[in-house]
Task: inverse folding
């Protein structure tokens, strides 16, 4: 039997201010394509890779080029601004974006499959952890675009519903590395912790400058003013560097240090395929998951027509590196397993709490919103021994 062949768009900014994360996402997708080529005789997927270079306008241009070539499925985008930029193209041409990034929620497009974490799978568990272990007074700092705005809004509402306080919010242009003023403001406010939604080079500069300023003030930064994020990953720890890499809290659904056979195999194969990095991470895993789920759906549907593939996608179960993953037919978001890690001196994470099972995605926080109850139904995390 001849293998059915499909061209699949792959769109990540492998250059630009957030290229470290985007390259890890590209690598995760390419690893999945490589494995499929080696293991499936009934399906041939050809990745068509494009690089917007972090330029928002290029995302739309490249999307139109890909869809104009007859491509109907694209795995890609890291930032929420890039996702928002291209969704109208996918809706107009009835194509499907497979979006592999944690994000702020409050969106559910019929032309997007979301394989990254929704807010109830990363923001809300982090708030619970911080209030239990870090104190109740937060200072928010982020990149000046929709990801940070919305995550900080969710964070603020959840904190306030539980009796916490957000002392201030500060935003910076993507790529801005002159952060001394906000570092000084944080030290003056002396919050219990910082909630960080900076991305890319801004993020790395902040960690280095904040650690240095705390040391100059006689503070043990990880102990006295810890920094918590929903984006911090292993490749970014390596970019921060040894002097400021340890003691940071990250809420995610995957860490490369997970002790499971599936995770170990993923890390081994990824490292062999991409020995020059960036390191395997949740972002790489989400792209890997997106391609694997797409392949399963294409194989079942027998065509690349969007309605058939979407329906087939919601019937798949994937044994992913993080554990079992599947797509919710109501929202087209993924069931994922929330975890919280603390970075160590080796630029990796020690997993300190995790949910016992995959959690239903709740992108609009209908079941989890602090607006409706002081004790909303959140993922129940357990301490990892």
Result:
């Amino acid at each position: 039997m001849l293998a059915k062949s499909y061209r699949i768009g792959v769109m990540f900014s492998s250059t630009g201010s957030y290229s470290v994360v985007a390259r890890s996402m590209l690598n995760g997708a390419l690893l999945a394509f490589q494995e499929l080529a080696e293991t499936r005789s009934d399906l041939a997927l050809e990745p068509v890779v494009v690089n917007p270079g972090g330029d928002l306008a290029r995302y739309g241009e490249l999307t139109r080029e890909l869809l104009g070539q007859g491509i109907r499925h694209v795995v890609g985008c890291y930032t929420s601004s890039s996702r928002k930029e291209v969704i109208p193209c996918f809706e107009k041409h009835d194509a499907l974006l497979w979006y592999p990034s944690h994000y702020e929620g409050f969106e559910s497009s019929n032309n997007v499959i979301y394989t990254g974490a929704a807010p109830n799978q990363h923001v809300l568990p982090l708030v619970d952890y911080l209030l239990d272990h870090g104190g109740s007074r937060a200072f928010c700092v982020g990149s000046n675009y929709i990801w940070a705005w919305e995550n900080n809004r969710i964070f603020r509402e959840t904190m306030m519903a539980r009796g916490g306080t957000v002392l201030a919010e500060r935003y910076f242009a993507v790529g801005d590395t002159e952060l001394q003023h906000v570092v000084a403001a944080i030290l003056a406010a002396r919050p219990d912790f910082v909630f960080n939604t900076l991305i890319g080079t801004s993020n790395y500069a902040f960690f280095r400058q904040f650690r240095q300023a705390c040391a100059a003030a006689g503070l043990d930064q990880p102990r006295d003013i810890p920094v918590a994020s929903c984006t911090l990953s292993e490749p970014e720890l390596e970019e921060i560097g040894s002097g400021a890499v340890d003691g940071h809290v990250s809420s995610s659904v995957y860490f490369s240090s997970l002790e499971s056979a599936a995770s170990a195999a993923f890390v081994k194969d990824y490292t062999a395929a991409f020995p020059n990095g960036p390191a395997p991470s949740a972002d790489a895993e989400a792209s890997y998951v997106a391609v694997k789920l797409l392949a399963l759906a294409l194989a079942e549907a027998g065509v690349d027509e969007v309605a058939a593939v979407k329906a087939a996608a919601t019937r798949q179960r994937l044994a992913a590196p993080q554990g079992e993953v599947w797509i919710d037919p109501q929202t087209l978001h993924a069931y994922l397993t929330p975890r919280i890690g603390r970075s160590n001196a080796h630029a990796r994470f020690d997993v300190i709490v995790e949910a016992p099972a995959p959690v239903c995605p709740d992108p609009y926080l209908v079941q989890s919103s602090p607006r409706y109850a002081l004790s909303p139904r959140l993922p129940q995390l357990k301490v990892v021994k």
